[in-house]
Amino acid sequence: MSVHLSLVFPGAAAHVPQLARELVARRIAVLRGPRSFELSDAQALLHLGAMTCDRVDYIVADASPTLESIEMAGAFFAGSGADTILAIGGGAVIDTAKGVRRIAACPHLCAADALRMRGGSTRRLPACIAVPTTAGTGSEVTPFATFYVGGVKHSVDHPDAMPDRAVVDARLTGSLDARQTACSGVDAICHGIESMWSRAATTESITYASDALTLCGRYLGDAIREGDANARAAVMYAAHLSGRAIAITRTTAAHALSYALTARFGIPHGHAVGLFMGPVLAEHAREVHRGKGIAEYQETILARLALPNARTPRQRWEAQLREWGLPATLAEVGVPRSAYAELIAEVNLERLANHPVRLDLQHLLDAL
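Predicted structure:
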């Protein structure tokens, strides 16, 4: 089931009890992070005390969901008697909720087979309301989720993963510090960039992505430096738009390269993607895209971000990361050069195949 209602405005969170009633929720399982729920003041902002249905809570502790952690959450949901999921948190929480939803609809399958879509559902999908507390993943409007098995990234990519309702309220991001705001904002930007040059780009996805990049270019700096409420609202909306864009196109090389960096070195996802975006931009100087140089096309894309002045796109991108308070290279985050080849070798081939041009991974490795 696809999202057929998204509420995107400051104050939207207060409508969650009404949405639960409209979905005829009798017992709702609240999946939430170990700290974000309290820090975001979600209990008050979502008016959870006004819920007319029963409620049980489950804390999603893993920053990067694993098969085991999703299986545990699925077992909790199955034993709770809940019929509706309310996911309140960042991408890890919402991705976990998507996995739980799939497991609940496939009781005849083990968790691994359910998540890998090795069989159809035999029960009705539990309703799902997604409420992000970060401005970056856009997971509330995408039909896919990420989980790890032995440190290797796997994807759920199926309409069953799409939440029924998305509630996007920037007030829930008010407690994020500058680094968290920067990391999640960079994720939203990379979604926009990659969606625009994706092989699967459409007029609709390009509109979503280009608007998202313009908003991030104008407001992300203020959201990071000042925590300005209006800037946070703009970036939250941009992240939502980028989510809608990648729901159509999927991501490409920078995301494909990033997952091993997060799994092996604990680099936050958005920052990990940003660290690979610079080398990808540099590699594009040698490529051709739809009859014109990809370097020329990416200049059109990057112009929406108003990046700092520098000689090359990579230099401009890395200068911008530093202005936002983030290290800009693998060396700056302490990744030893001896690990670079393994990171490249663990590239996600599914996402890499969506890139507009064939990248020379050895050349990319040399450029790191």
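Summary: The longest strand covers residues 27-32.
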